[in-house]
Inverse folding.
């Protein structure tokens, strides 16, 4: 991966971190935590009348990777069906686990900025945090509908 | 002997004659720095510990010289590299035995793996529950259960062995009862060399809903194991007996079991959250890995697994069995010699490359000391299996155990020296 | 700086200026193969693990290439050599801390040592008994006691800390009671760097007839310890934090205690006799060393101890404290920076070479990742001390911790990069 | 140590092993065991009217080192006072533990043949066995007198 790419990715990550579009105080949703640093995040997902995701928001504290990743996630999920959303989240987590190729992140909008992080076994836990939180919510919504 | 084989063949093969495989072994011996140092050493104490090939030593050193950091929490590159190598090693071992990485817990060795279970699995048992072992267990798979029995009022039962050193499977049917909670047994006896019919035991046990722990310390260097097809619930082995470093081993456990049983040791990495009042355990396998793990040794055992796979793992085991058989043939008529365990043509399984023997009127220590003068390293004693020694009526025996670098010539030489010992001692 | 010192001085000295000691450090750095690989690396995560000098790696390899055998039961020369080296290593470590060899139990590290005690010593306790810890313990000296508390109904009490990160010794008087059976505490905090007044605690405890366990994981690389003069009942440390290998550590225990408490893990070497019905433990220290020990790693930690002694152990610790103090001076005025723990001139003890800090508005992960780009390895997180982090009101902090190879130039460089980070992050 | 010495030592050890002078069936004395091999030995010591050791005998099973060492011990103790005997036994065990110089074995008659064994951490346990057994008996006798 070249330096130019790296800094493009960094730019995306920094932007979502410094100017998150989907961060707002939430409550009554449990936090998901990263035991190794104490970072925590929770995600709320609400469906529209068409059964598609109308709004995704997050809340929490953490490093630039975990917070920007949450913002990217929120942006990505809006407008998707539950099935599409789950597939995307599974794909992202599978890439981080090394089970699928990093190139597949290209399918996930700004999430492609985490290609570099996917090679870092410690930091990928930061990146995964909000996606794990989203998965819990998506499963819950699927159960309810 | 085929001179060509000496040059071209680098893996053992069932298609080879024993002479050809022996020339593979000669080739392999060159990969061992210890034999550079002692070219005439006939090292046949592999059941105690094996020598380590250069690639394993290099892998371990490489971690120290290129990626030395503590794992799991270091954000910096060096730490990511160390964590990556450590987790890669887990994946390599998982692949080696057909498991998922999260089912593989790094331990110091077989002994720690079994103690972990005796505590963690043990905490799920109640007074009056029963555990079935065999009469041929190594102390590592006996004493932890005796300690558990004392702590929690568990009852231990033992599958008896026949005079030939084979498991009496008939008796197992009687032993299995309503309170049986676990069968814990060795796959290969470190004294008798018997390869136990663990497949049959596992089938029987699972029919009765009982989990099985296999002590694979002696099996792992001698045969490829696949936990999906073999289907044990737990499996334990040590790195240092499979050409890997000291201080590392593995406990495999089926996911559902590892998730169910409580953690063993407490400390860093095994927790998810800690308050002064209590803690929440981490997910598997980390829940069982408290404290800084043996990072370099993990990289070493992974390299050993790759090394074993690369040289024809199954064929190597067969070759070692063949050497054992040849040795037995050459020494069985020495007056007063007794070979422990099953004799040629025994019904159950096969004998691993292990031959324990006694020589009437000669103490095993003296025999070992005598052979040592001729550069042959055999172990003498009860081989950490007191009850078995008692069952067989021997105080101590001398044990020859083969590894990947032992040759046919060495077998002849050992046999000659045993004949000589008979005359001189 | 004195150019001569660069060439002639190979040991740290209190008589030296910090510049002179720094040139010793530069000399020492050359003994580390990892720094050959990464000459510009500023490794300051020594509290997590230290790098290993060539002599330690060579000692470990030497065991494998010249005396690789299992220990304690091999009659042959190679086995006698391995056993000899293993026991020599125990003697070296015993001498290193002023103990008798049989009071020194090899473990995987600090974590295993403390877990051993929580089980073995723990078995001598009854419901309602109390153990006193502190609020600044590493999880390794907290979770094992929480597990014991759950198993046996033991009560844990905590010596509180002041806002400055010092132990509140007044409170200790209140905590000691009739049911207090042990005080277990860290000698040096891995977060705050505080060197606790363990001498005072031990005197107090012994007046009340209570034994004391010291977690010396952070203390051992920074100061020579003598168990006869310091007089703890138990002491634990890890090899990998004192320039030794992973996978080895030590539990020291006074003879009377080790003889009294039951064994922990069961297996080979820890028994004297085994029947199917039960076992008799071996004598100390073997009673606590079940299974094949980490032979090569024992040789490695012994070499690390010799290495530390050879370069002026106490003076090295002082030098590291000095570096920490200099770093604090250079960064304390950065806006929004908070240095955890005691500030210059604090009454109790001194600060080890550890500086944990937070920078307002910048997550510790991001700070660590930023510094990593400039080749500086700092740890970010809660440093395995959740309760302490909570007490201090910080989720995670970045920690700089010094070792024998860190120089004054590195301190300036780190300070510069922290100033730069403040501007750029 | 030269080969000539080694074989002299061996000669002494072999002789005591093959033709022990002090081995006979004993009973009512507990065996002392070597856990690593199961070897065991017991020693009986009887005092004469002069308070000196009149007879020492041993019984047990083991390798040439442990058995010859027992015979050497028995030979050495006869005619000694309890104090002298204890001093000798302590000296022998201290040499094996590496606390005193092997050269001191020269003071102990045939026990000097164990100089080579003293360098072997595993086998020295065989050599020490009967001396540990003797020490127990000597302590007992000292308590009684
Ligand atoms: C104070 C303290 N205690 C215990 C430990 C645990 O040591 P180890 O992980 O080597 O068992 C550490 C290191 O992480 C420590 O800093
Ligand atoms: C069958 C068997 N089980 C367990 C062990 C114990 O292995 P370790 O000492 O590596 O823990 C051994 C080796 O001594 C063995 O042969």
């Amino acid at each position: 991966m070249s330096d130019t790419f790296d800094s493009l990715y960094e730019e995306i990550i920094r932007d979502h971190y410094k100017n998150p579009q989907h961060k707002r105080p939430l409550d009554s949703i449990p936090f998901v935590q990263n035991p190794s640093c104490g970072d925590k995040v929770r995600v709320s997902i609400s469906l529209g009348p068409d059964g598609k995701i109308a709004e995704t928001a997050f809340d929490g504290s953490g490093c630039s990777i975990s917070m920007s990743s949450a913002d990217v996630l929120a942006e990505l999920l809006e407008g998707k069906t539950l099935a599409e959303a789950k597939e995307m989240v599974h794909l992202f987590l599978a890439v981080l686990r090394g089970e699928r190729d990093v190139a597949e992140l290209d399918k996930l909008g700004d999430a492609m900025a985490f290609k570099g992080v996917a090679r870092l076994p410690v930091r990928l836990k930061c990146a995964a945090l909000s996606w794990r939180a989203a998965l819990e919510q998506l499963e819950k919504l699927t159960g309810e509908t | 002997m085929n001179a060509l084989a000496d040059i071209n063949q680098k893996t053992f093969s069932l298609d080879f004659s024993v002479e050809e495989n022996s020339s593979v072994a000669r080739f392999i011996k060159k990969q061992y720095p210890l034999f550079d140092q002692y070219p005439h050493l006939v090292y046949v104490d592999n059941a105690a510990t094996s020598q380590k090939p250069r690639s394993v030593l290099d892998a371990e050193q490489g971690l120290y010289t290129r990626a030395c950091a503590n794992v799991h929490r270091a954000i910096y590159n060096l730490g990511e590299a160390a964590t990556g190598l450590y987790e890669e090693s887990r994946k390599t071992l998982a692949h080696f035995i057909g498991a998922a990485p999260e089912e593989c817990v790094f331990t110091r060795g077989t002994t720690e793996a079994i103690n972990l279970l005796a505590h963690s699995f043990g905490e799920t048992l109640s007074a009056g529950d029963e555990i079935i072992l065999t009469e041929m267990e190594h102390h590592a798979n006996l004493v932890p259960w005796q300690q558990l029995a004392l702590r929690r009022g568990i009852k231990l039962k033992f599958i008896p062995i026949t005079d030939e050193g084979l498991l009496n499977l008939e008796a197992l049917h009687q032993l299995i009862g309503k309170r049986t909670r676990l069968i814990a047994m060795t796959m290969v006896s470190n004294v008798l060399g018997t390869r136990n019919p663990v497949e049959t035991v596992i089938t029987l046990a699972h029919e009765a809903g009982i989990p099985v722990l296999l002590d694979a310390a002696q099996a792992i260097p001698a045969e490829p194991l696949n936990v999906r097809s073999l289907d044990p619930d737990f499996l334990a082995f040590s790195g240092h007996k499979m050409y890997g470093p000291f201080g590392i081993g593995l406990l495999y456990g089926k996911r559902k079991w590892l998730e169910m049983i409580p953690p063993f040791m407490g400390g860093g990495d095994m927790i998810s959250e800690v308050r002064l009042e209590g803690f929440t355990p981490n997910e598997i396998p980390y829940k069982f890995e408290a404290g800084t793990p043996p990072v370099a040794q993990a990289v070493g055992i992974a390299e050993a697994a790759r090394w074993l796979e690369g040289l024809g793992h199954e064929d190597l085991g067969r070759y070692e069995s063949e050497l054992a058989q040849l040795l037995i043939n050459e020494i069985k008529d020495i007056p007063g010699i007794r070979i422990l365990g099953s004799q040629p043509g025994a019904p159950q399984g096969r004998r691993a490359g292990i031959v324990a023997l006694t020589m009437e009127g000669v103490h095993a220590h003296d025999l070992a000391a005598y052979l040592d003068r001729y550069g042959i390293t055999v172990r003498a004693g009860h081989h950490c299996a007191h009850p078995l020694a008692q069952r067989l009526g021997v105080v101590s025996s001398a044990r020859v155990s083969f590894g990947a670098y032992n040759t046919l010539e060495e077998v002849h030489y050992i046999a000659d020296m045993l004949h000589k010992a008979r005359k001189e001692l």
In short: Confidence is low (pLDDT under 50) at residues 1-7 of chain B. The interface with chain A takes residues 72-75, 79-80, 83-84, 87, 271-273, 282 of chain B (CB under 8 Å).
